[in-house]
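__Protein archive entry__

___
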Amino acid sequence: MGNSMQQDNVSSINIDPIFDGYKEGERAATADEYLERFMDSVPKSLAELIEKYSATQYPVKFIIYDSILPWVLDLAKSLGIEGGPFFTQTCAVNALYYHKLQGGALKIAMEEKSSVSLPSLPQLELNDLPSLVHGPGSYPGVYDLIYSQFSNIDGASWLLWNTFDELEDEVRSRFPKS
């Protein structure tokens, strides 16, 4: 991918690839193998990229990262910069994951007619819930990624969410506009 990206020389945005541990044409046999190699390579590659820009007139000042990679915030802080996760799933899904994580605050009965109620969300039926709310199932690595996204959000400078105001009137009405 990095070799195929073209950058316009008049842009104020720099695009630099980060090495994921795989050379062109290489593939992991399993998702777990990919994640292991990813975690061995990407933090080093990202730190090198940040260091590269630290000696320029445009040093990295803030990192926005996918929330399932909370280690990026720790890396950023160790290099003296701030960061904030971007939660790519809907607020409703993240609320479910968060409440599930908080000491089992989200209780789910597995009966077909059971429902779940959380503040600012409509009543949800069992089939409305993401499968990972029920447990790791066939994808324990993905389960761990999803739930680790909340591990250090208290240290983030900003939290960025994938949402639409019009879809969340009840939540929006609780926060007055400034």
Summary: The helical segments are 31-54, 71-78, 91-101, 140-148, 169-173.
